[in-house]
Fold this protein.
Amino acid sequence: MGLSKRAYTFKKIRVSGPLWPNCSMSSPAPNFASSPFSITSPRRIPKSKFTYKQLHQLKSYSPQTPLRVIAHVDLDAFYAQCETVRLGIDPSKPLAVQQWQGLIAINYPARAFGLSRHVTSTEALKQCPDLIMQHVATWKEGDEKWAYHENSFKEMATHKVSLDPYRMESRKILKCIKETLPEKEQRVEKAGIDEVFLDLSAQVHTVLLERYPELRGPTPYEDPTERLPKVPTTVLDWAADALVETGEEDGEDVDPDWDDVCMVIASEIVRDVRKDVKEKLGYTCSGGVARNKMLAKLGSGYKKPNQQTVIRNRAVKHFLSEMKFTKIRMLGGKLGDEAVAMFGTDKVKDLLEQPMDQLKKLGDDTGSWLYSTIRGEDNSEVNPRTQIKSMLSAKSFRPAINSFEQGVRWLRIFAADIFSRCVEEGVLENKRRPKTVNLHHRQGAQTRSRQAPVPQGKPLSEAMLFDLAKNLLAQVVVDGRAWPCANLSLSVGGFEDGITNNKGIGGFLVRGAEAKAMMSTGRSASGGEPPAKRRRTKGNIANFFGPRDDKNKGFDAARAVLMKAHSESTREEEAEDDFDEHEHEHDEDDHFHDPNEGDVERPHTPTPDRNASNNNDNLYRSDTPPSAQPQHNTHSLPVPPTTQPK
Ligand code: TTP
Ligand code: CA
Ligand code: CA
């Protein structure tokens, strides 16, 4: 990227008096190694507040060092930009992305007309007659692939939304960002469809040592607690960055220390990343630079579009105290609401007055997490995992659907959708493949889930996924009370790296066992039975012979599907009798994936300010922490993570 070669510009350089005889206006990097530690009265030497150890810790991305630099980059009006780029539309024209009658993304020119996600397409056109509205791509039953259809907003009953085009752009952007950063000094976490966290610590460390050779050591007296020399300048060049103010009268009078210099370097890197994304792919994004993820994320959203905000350590307190805590990562949902209700305020400032034991009314861990969070502390690591661990395809039905056959038609689309995404994950080359398939079914207030293992011995196919899905739905149907169904979703999870060593015939032998296990898949009902680990049982077979339920439409068809699967599994069992089958157990909680664990794309929970479409078709990754995700049947509060496993 050439950062090290770039001239480091200073608006003004004030040399720190006679202690720095070597320092000249043109060289911002005086040789400290030869001067400050050999001068006669060391006590007079002004020093940095940071130590050699803390500097060194940067190299290994330690969350402990106060010099740490994290960035968050978020695309502006993402889906809207995807459409302007795809269609070659002038980005200054107002444009919104439509999903059925709602708008799900609005570009900044359209926001100038006061449009937001809350308006319907009809209202939007009244407010902004020149608004370009592009409907998202949809899958139509029987189609091989999603497509952009004319008038698709009228096809809600027969089509399903596809966000594939945006996922594809998201991948390109991620790749571009990674290519901009030095290969060996990058740590990138995909945090959603249009955002990433970057831990810039190691790269900044390298640049720092290049620009300021005096920092290279050796550590004086071999004492890592020895403080670093002072920064040889008093004014840093922040270019076009939005600098958060310190809120203190003398806040800017304190000379810059190395944490400020680290932030300047990080912010140059972020500027380069943003420039590359714009030049190579045509997208603008906003960035935030700060000492941790929580602050960096607040920074990227602070000034939009196409800007970057730096929250220097000296500005953290002021920045946060002016904030609503509901804007903080992980406090945007239920936990935030709970805190608002409990303390009667949504302001950080007010919450800062609450002693720890008061905050602990939200739970011990949550309370202490909140206590440090509102003080700007967050030790969570940037997690470089970018691989998908599960995929979900869903549809909300309005009106609700009423028969097994109808459900099966949707499953065909889900299977095609998921299969095509698996193909992109390298499943065909057997690089990675899912281990389980899950079906979620909502009827009234009740959500039911069924899970089955994906047979491992044969190539994954769309037909296989479809058959598995159909089977799972059949199980729900024979259990009764399946209709009307308001929401159906299919997901695959437990992606594992493909079998590279030759497992031989064993892989195929699993089939019989798994086919059997399928008949006894895990079940959960949000209203009913508690989740329990269960061993293989007779499952739904008993229901075959139970009384026929005439109200249960599609019962016969569902029963036929199960009968067929059962006879197939017994046939395989007979053939492979001597195979030492493994027991298949299910942990019901498996259905709720940890978003930090994988690229789970989940329907977003409609909240009062997010009711753009109230349609679960719209799958996008949320930022909520694992434990803050809506949980089944529980009222427990999140215990936000303090560290993440590497
Ligand atoms: P955001 O990053 O939240 O929003 P944005 O990119 O549209 O706008 P901003 O410039 O403020 O960042 O979401 C990214 C995409 O996710 C967005 O373009 C559309 C989709 N999305 C929804 O479909 N529904 C939602 O409720 C939200 C919040 C986002
Ligand atoms: Ca965005
Ligand atoms: Ca985002």
About this structure: Residues 258-281 form the longest helix (24 residues).
